[in-house]
Amino acid sequence: QGDRDLANKQVLISAGGTREHFDPVRFIGNPATGKMGIAIAQAAVHRGARVTMVHGPMNVEMVETLSEVTLVSVTTAQQMSDAMLSLFPAANLTIMAAAVADVRPTAYHPEKLPKRSLPQQLDLETVPDIVAQLAQKKRPDQHLVGFAAQTGDILAPAWEKLQRKNLDAIVANPIDQPGAGFGSDTNQAILLDRHGKKQNISGCTKLQLAHHLLDFIDFSPITL
Ligand code: C5P
């Protein structure tokens, strides 16, 4: 990868998972740790970009490894959505690496529920699709990348997501393989872009995958 090749670029990254609480201590969430988003932030800083990272709750020591990154800490998908939508217009490249909780409880109890009052069932609603909302606001000079964490076949669902969400590229991530996915320091992926360009990245560190991804993205303006 060319050093400082992102010198004039503003890169916006989402990282980690969101939490959808139904009382102050209980939530629906997922196992995302933020390691992939952090690796992308490190790679982008190394290549000279100005980087902002919107992140869900994550390990403080991991966040402290980041220098020169503007951090925006959020908890819920709605907060992540608000932050991403307001930061998006200034970004040349946006990479949505966060694992957004797909559903949230419809009710929130501001006081901790005693065990005897805990609901035996939760009413849920789907959270808004952040990356799809960003895609609707995307200018031709902006690039938008998503992730598709998959088990089993990864290629067909990732291609379907890229098209449905109107993304420029997607990282198809086989989370059921050893040394890939949530919490791991290593990963593997297939990178796909909207023109059908495809690159297989076999077992490597998340930082190496981040650099492969930044190499893969074609920064020329998109002609519609
Ligand atoms: O549909 P799925 O969750 O597999 O899509 C994954 C991609 O969409 C990721 O880039 C993720 O950050 C993004 N996403 C989102 N908002 C959601 C759900 C997923 O931006 N509510």
Work out the strand percent.
Answer: 25-35%
CATH architecture: 3-Layer(aba) Sandwich
How many independent structural domains? 1
- Count of runs of 4 or more consecutive helical residues: 6
* CATH structural fold name: Rossmann fold
**Could you tell me which ligands this complex binds, including any ions or cofactors?**
cytidine-5'-monophosphate
Strand order of the largest sheet: 5-4-1-6-9-10-11-12
Order of helical and strand elements: EEEHEHEHEEEHEHEEEH
* Contiguous uncertain segments of 5+ residues: none
> How many β strands by DSSP?
12
Instruction: Estimate the mean pLDDT confidence.
Output: 94
Radius of gyration: 18 Å
Give the CATH class.
Alpha Beta
So, the CATH homologous superfamily? CoaB-like
Structural class: alpha/beta
Structural shape: globular
Please estimate the helix content.
Answer: 25-40%
Main beta-sheet strand count, sense and barrel state: 8 strands, mixed
Descriptive overview:
This protein has 224 residues and is α/β, with parallel strands linked by helices. It has a single domain, classed as CoaB-like (Rossmann fold). It has 6 helices and 12 strands. The strands form 3 sheets. An 8-stranded mixed β-sheet has the order 5-4-1-6-9-10-11-12, with helices on both faces. α1 crosses α6. The longest helix is centred in the N-terminal third of the chain and has 12 residues, at 35-46. It starts with 9 loop residues before the first strand and ends in an 8-residue tail after the last helix. Residues 77, 96, 98, 100, 102, 127, 129-131, 146-148, 161 line the site of cytidine-5'-monophosphate.
